Amino acid sequence: MKKLLPILLALVMLLGLAACAQKTPAADTSAPAVSPSSSAASPSADASAKPSTDKILRVGMECAYAPYNWTQSDNSNGAVPIYQSSDFAYGYDIMMAKKICEKLGYTLEVHKLAWDSIPLAVQSGDIDCGICGQSITADRLKTLDFSTPYYYASIVVLTKADSKFASAVGLSDLSGAICTSQINTVWYDVCLPQIKDAKILPAMDDTSAMLVSLKSGNCDLVVTDKPTAMAAVMVNPDLKLLDFTDKSDNFKVSDEEINIGVSIKKGNKELVDAVNSVLATMTPADYEKMMQDAIKLQPLAQ
Questions:
Q1: CA–CA separation, 99 vs 178, rounded Å?
Q2: Least packed by Cβ within 10 Å: which of 92, 119, 206, 296?
């Protein structure tokens, strides 16, 4: 036992030293350390600390459909940048988009798209909505949801002031006309076939092409909505607007075909309700004043 006593004492001392060494805690590998700026910080804590910088409303439009929307080279009169472009967009649709974004706390991002591709972009989620002068038709409602109307656009005719159709006082007076309008619109699909013996040319890609066709003498007349026609006449005094509204001899269209709304992805009730909450604060008189302002500010060339 005497021989074992020194050995036992040495073991006790070694164990005591080991215990003292463990008072400095080892790194905890069960959860990595997080710095204040790390993305591993609590998402809910970050969200409550500051508003999201990603609250962007991606809005699709042609930027070629005055007075609803057009392209210009600078930000005059409140125009906004076009996404991934050095150009800017303005017009009635921009005014409305800015108002919606301001009320809902969004940053507006304008995407310039071909007319025909806007519904597809909304459906796919590439953009959040189309604010582009779209009628709320039953056909469109099959694949898109819409806000309540943000404008009511009666349908009219544009012809040259010296045309043989310039004196027309009703739809029947347009019989035999060579005519066209924009692709996938009520104007082309519903109204042109109502002109007796009309020679209907292929549809135009946008309103600019439609007006070029008219001014170049390719056709006798085009069918469009009243704001578009008013804007065209303002900068083209050689054109004449024919409005048969409130006459029995007029185009037969339903209310849905002249009601203009914001198109939104099917099922996105939250955004539909949010947009409608903004539109509910406005009246048809407000819409008309905005449209008249847009017509006055439209570019001097189309």
A1: 40
A2: 296
CA dihedral 256, 261, 265, 266 (to 10 degrees): -30
**In the 8-state DSSP scheme, what is residue 261?**
E
Find where tokens 């045309």 sit: 163
Contact call for residues 201 and 192 (beta carbons, < 8 A): no
Report yes or no: 189 and 116 within 8 Å, Cβ to Cβ. no
302 residues of the chain, pLDDT tens digit each: 444 444 444 444 444 444 444 433 343 433 323 222 233 333 333 333 333 456 999 999 999 999 999 999 999 999 999 999 999 999 999 999 999 999 999 999 999 999 999 999 999 999 999 999 999 999 999 999 999 999 999 999 999 999 999 999 999 999 999 999 999 999 999 999 999 999 999 999 999 999 999 999 999 999 999 999 999 999 999 999 999 999 999 999 998 889 999 999 999 999 999 999 999 999 999 999 999 999 999 865 44
Strands 259-265 and 199-200: unpaired
* Cβ–Cβ under 8 Å, residues 156 and 171: no
d(CA 280, CA 99): 12
Measured CA distances, 17 to 13, 14, 130 (Å):
6, 5, 74
pTM to 2 decimals? 0.77
